[in-house]
Write a structure and sequence with these properties.
Layout lengths: L20 H18 L12 H15 L6 E2 L2 E2 L6 H13 L3 H37 L5 H9 L4 H17 L4 H18 L5 H12 L7 H27 L3 H15 L11 H10 L6 H14 L1 H7 L2 H19 L9 H18 L8 H34 L1 H16 L4 E5 L4 H7 L3 E4 L1 H8 L14 E5 L5 E6 H10 L12 H5 L2
Parallel strand pairs: 3-4
Antiparallel strand pairs: 1-2, 3-5, 5-6
């Protein structure tokens, strides 16, 4: 039967120093691997509709208004998401200058930090080899690469602070300072993505209630975690509710959170098992680990159920509970966006690495589990390049979908630079990429509303205004159609994407027509 380190309530820290040169080398390897994976095309335009361009625009307006608590998008109050990502991106803009690269850097840093935390969580439990494997597994998940580290998205800081909370809990479930740190990390997770940040709170509270090795802290430990979370996230919530936006609770908590759980908000009525199908698609490349898992199960069953349960370290029970909570939450949300399974991928990586480490521990070449473990790792390694090509292809396709609204935005910027003081109108749904790259506020209206209300009285209005037209009402009262989204879509389908390395400028405005 494979032997893990003796069960302990508190995971032993990895002490730095000359004797741990290998530790620092492995941490450096994780940083390098994470940076190479998450910075692919990091400066490529455009920012994606919807989220990337939305978040970058909120950060842009925050930076220029100097009002870090009163968030706006397209000139209107923005209360759909908490402020932490926008503060991070605004700080990146101030330091690096406003660009696609600067918008994505905070997510890259958070993604690499998550990988390091996975290693630190796993190493005292399953050994350094298993920890290194665990920290690299997320780099094979599309949603971790895209939403958890490469794109400007709230998921990256959510993952980092959620993982930090679990790390603090494992380090000291019976020490007040670590419990408070766990709570503060939960609070920062809430400030990253709203009530999705409550997932680590639920995991921590459940662990202190009934998970073996952690329940000694009991209600007192839960209180310290709750206090840390409240002190971290509470001031911003109170400010929004009392001073900035009276409808904060109804919008942020009611619409953006509870309604997503209770109802469908997307157009496609997806099946109830959508989250499980999505999750299976993300982890199916790890199927070779089923082989050593079966062999390990047979070996453990021979030792008896009681001995088997006693051999499982308390942190592994915590990982199982963490996995169950996050996957159940993804299944419970009625607004079924595919990246909602992302929080479940972190404990999945830890559990997968635990299987591999367990199979390869004791004389691996002399046991069925060890041989199957080596075979599984070899198969996963052989499949890795193909999976990487798929991940990068999907990402490029997603960016290509935002190119038409990007081109419209650059055309609007060119038109306004030639004649400042105009006003933009778009006939259709809001396009964040259009707003961000046009560099000005845009009115999104229906066709009839545009023809009969906004442009009434214009000295020179177009004869016809169609769906998806972008209209500029210039400073002289003339209304001119400067582009059409459908036309840009047709052009984009017939031409290759614009060069990835070119910075944001007006050149593309002339190329896009």
């Amino acid at each position: 039967m494979p032997q893990y380190p003796p069960p302990a309530t508190r995971a032993e820290p990895l002490a730095p120093g000359r004797k741990n040169l290998r530790l620092w080398v492995e941490l450096l390897l994780i940083v390098v691997a994470g940076a190479l994976a998450l910075t692919v095309n990091i400066g490529q335009r455009p920012l994606l509709d919807w989220d990337e361009a939305t978040y970058a625009q909120v950060a842009h307006e925050t930076l220029h208004s100097h009002r870090i608590f009163d968030l706006t998008w397209n000139g209107a109050p923005y209360v759909k998401k908490p402020p932490l990502l926008f503060w991070m991106v605004a700080g990146s803009f101030r330091i690096l200058g406003e660009s696609e690269l600067a918008a994505r850097v905070p997510s890259v840093i958070a993604g690499i930090g998550t990988l390091l935390l996975i290693y630190l969580i796993a190493a005292p439990v399953i050994g350094r080899f298993g920890a290194l494997f665990a920290s690299l597994i997320p780099l094979s998940f599309y949603f971790f690469i895209a939403r958890g580290g490469r794109e400007c998205a709230t998921d990256a800081p959510l993952l980092f602070f959620s993982t930090l909370a679990i790390y603090a809990l494992i380090r000291g479930p019976d020490r007040r300072v670590w419990l408070v740190l766990c709570g503060m990390a939960c609070g920062l997770a809430i400030l990253s993505k709203g009530l999705a940040g409550m997932l680590p709170v639920i995991v921590a509270a459940g662990a202190l209630a009934f998970v073996p090795g952690y329940s000694a802290a009991g209600l007192g430990g839960v209180t310290w975690i709750a206090a840390g979370a409240a002190l971290t996230a509470g001031p911003w919530c109170l400010y929004e509710a009392l001073f900035n936006y009276p409808a904060f609770l109804a919008n942020f908590v009611g619409y953006e959170t509870l309604r997503r759980v209770a109802t469908h908000l997307e157009d496609d009525q997806l099946e109830t098992h959508f989250a499980l199908v999505t999750f299976d698609g993300e982890i199916k490349h790890l199927w070779p680990l089923i082989l050593p898992l079966i062999a390990l199960t047979v070996e453990l069953c021979r030792a008896g159920l009681r001995s088997t349960l006693r051999a499982v370290p308390p942190p592994v029970w915590l990982w199982l509970w963490w996995f169950a909570v996050t996957l159940a939450a993804a299944c419970a949300v009625q607004t079924r966006l595919p990246w909602y399974i992302l929080p479940a991928l972190i404990p999945t990586a830890l559990l997968a690495a635990a299987i591999a480490a367990g199979a390869l521990r004791e004389r691996p070449l002399h046991s069925a589990a060890g041989l199957l473990g080596f075979a599984a790792l070899a198969i996963i390694a052989v499949q890795a390049p193909a999976r990487w090509r798929i991940i990068n292809h999907i990402e490029q396709r997603q960016r290509a979908h935002s190119m038409p609204s990007y081109v419209l935005g650059m055309k609007a910027r060119a038109a306004v630079s030639a004649d400042p003081g105009g006003e933009l109108f778009f006939v259709g749904v809001p396009l964040p990429t259009l707003v961000y790259y046009s560099g000005m506020r845009c009115n999104f209206v229906e066709s009839s509303e545009l023809a009969h209300v906004e442009l009434a009285g214009a000295e020179a209005a177009p004869d016809t205004i169609g769906s998806h037209d972008l209209v500029l009402l210039d400073s002289n009262g003339r209304a001119v159609v400067i582009g059409n989204l459908d036309h840009e879509w047709r052009w984009a389908m017939d031409h290759q994407p614009l060069p990835a390395a070119e910075p944001r400028n007006l050149t593309a405005a002339n190329q896009g027509g």
